[in-house]
């Protein structure tokens, strides 16, 4: 039997999507963070009620046939690090060597580049006092068996990923602090993003651990690896990273994609990372209070993407939620919540305050609320501004590179 209520709800949901799509189709870039829509927003104390069909995921997560054929760790590695990428690296490396010395006898091919990466990977796993130790009498025999020390040092000297002659000098218009790795980073993002996205996604920062002396290095004491280069990453609940963006200072703030609004530096990061997320298939995007703002929630809803995140009180115009020192919260029991709903640019936004005493309770609370939605058709937590369950942003490639089998295969690469 067909559930008439579900059919009607589904049709109404599609009509709502079409309405929002038509409303924003030509005005997505006109969402103004300083608009009166946000400054004069009116919050009303009520529950946002959504039917289960309104938040049901309608996208496709089936892996491409090319990915399904991958069986071994080296298969997965070569799916992301393709021959095309190795050819780019060896061509640019040879160019750099000839540019420095036109009479040089140095020459490298893509197989030597693969072995070079294998050597670096082994070095990151098996620590020796210095580089020379790997070729010593008591060194790691896999390395000298595949590459001489002189060859390794030559590749390290000339290794290049882009044509240095096209690099704009610092201080000049068009300067790109990431020029030297822009091609490789862009290629890897494209390969990572070829995997269909799961329903629930997350945007957060990740540190690429390093203590090298570089202007991009940062110190974030709250991170597991406080020293390193900061990445903004779009990942899913399995820990797979679909897209990343390397933080390069204030230059990141100036990147506004065509057809998208300028809603502030942090909100623009989410907009850029979510550009390849399919519209109107009910993805749910999580982020923390570093990114959350009303213009961002409205923009994502205009694309048919639900969003959920913690929020700073100063980012909620005319906020009516009780403060930490209010009598209402002092007398309230653990688990108490209050909710206010408002509309901006035709999109409903729910603002929720939750009382708890342990940060760990948030994960269970979110899951319990979602289960309640699916089981009892009660109000949805989709717009609730709570902390999402933690999602690691470590990419599958990190584990692949740490696999000794891959190291050996890279070292012995000759085809």
The shape, in one word, is: elongated
Tell me the β content.
5-15%
What's the total count of β strands? Answer: 8
Return Rg in Å. Answer: 25 Å
Which class do the helix and strand fractions yield? alpha/beta
Helix-strand pattern, N to C? Answer: HHHHHHHHHHEEEEHEHEHEEHHH
What are the segments in which pLDDT stays under 50 over at least 5 consecutive residues? 4-26, 358-408
Report the span from N to C terminus: 59 Å
Number of helices: 16
The major beta sheet can be summarized as:
6 strands, mixed
Average pLDDT number: 80
The helical percent reads: 25-40%
Features:
38% helix, 6-stranded mixed β-sheet, 16 helices, 415 residues, alpha/beta, 8 strands, two-stranded antiparallel ribbon
Summary?
By secondary structure, the protein is of the alpha/beta class.
Describe the structure.
The chain has 16 helices and eight strands. With 415 residues, the chain is of the alpha/beta class. The model is unreliable at 4-26 and 358-408 (pLDDT under 50). Strand 2 (217-219) and strand 3 (227-236) form a beta hairpin. Helices cover 38% and strands 13% of the residues. Among the domains are: 1-59 and 278-384, no CATH class; 68-160 and 396-411, no CATH class. The strands form two sheets. Strands 1, 2, 3, 4, 5 and 6 form a six-stranded mixed β-sheet that branches. A two-stranded antiparallel ribbon has the order 7-8.
């Amino acid at each position: 039997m067909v559930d008439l209520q579900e059919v009607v709800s589904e049709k109404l949901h599609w009509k709502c999507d079409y309405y929002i799509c038509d409303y924003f189709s030509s005005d997505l870039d006109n969402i103004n963070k300083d608009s009166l829509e946000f400054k004069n927003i009116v919050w009303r104390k009520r529950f946002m009620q959504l039917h289960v069909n309104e938040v049901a995921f309608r996208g496709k997560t089936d892996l491409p046939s090319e990915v399904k054929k991958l069986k071994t760790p080296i298969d997965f590695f070569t799916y992301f690090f393709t021959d095309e990428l190795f050819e780019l690296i060896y061509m640019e490396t040879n160019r750099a060597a000839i540019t420095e010395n036109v009479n040089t006898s140095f020459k490298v091919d893509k197989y030597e580049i693969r072995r070079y990466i294998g050597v670096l990977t082994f070095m990151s796993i098996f620590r020796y006092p210095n580089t020379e130790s790997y070729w010593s009498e008591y060194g790691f025999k896999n390395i000298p068996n595949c590459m001489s020390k002189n060859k390794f040092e030559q590749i390290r000297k000339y290794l290049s990923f882009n044509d240095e002659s096209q690099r704009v000098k610092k201080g000049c218009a068009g300067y790109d602090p990431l020029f030297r790795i822009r091609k490789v980073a862009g290629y890897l993002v494209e390969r990572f993003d070829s995997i269909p996205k799961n329903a629930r996604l997350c945007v957060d920062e990740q540190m690429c651990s390093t203590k090298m002396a570089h202007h991009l290095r940062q110190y974030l004491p709250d991170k597991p690896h406080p020293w390193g280069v900061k990445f903004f990453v779009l990942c899913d609940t399995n820990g797979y990273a679909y897209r990343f963006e390397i933080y390069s200072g204030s230059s990141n703030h100036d990147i506004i994609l065509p057809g998208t609004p300028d809603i502030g530096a942090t909100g623009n990061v989410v907009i850029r990372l979510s550009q390849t997320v399919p519209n109107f298939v009910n993805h749910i995007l999580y982020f923390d209070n570093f990114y959350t703002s009303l213009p961002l929630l409205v923009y994502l809803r205009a694309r048919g993407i639900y969003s959920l995140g913690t929020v700073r009180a100063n980012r909620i115009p005319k906020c009516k939620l009780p403060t930490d020192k209010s009598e209402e919260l002092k007398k309230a029991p653990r688990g108490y919540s209050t909710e206010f709903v408002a509309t901006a640019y035709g999109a409903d936004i729910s603002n929720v305050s939750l009382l708890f005493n342990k940060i760990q309770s948030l994960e269970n609370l979110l899951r319990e609320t979602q289960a309640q939605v699916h089981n009892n058709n009660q109000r949805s937590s989709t717009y609730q501004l709570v902390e999402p369950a933690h999602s690691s942003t470590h990419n599958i490639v990190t584990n692949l590179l740490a696999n000794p089998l891959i190291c050996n295969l890279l070292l012995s690469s000759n085809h």
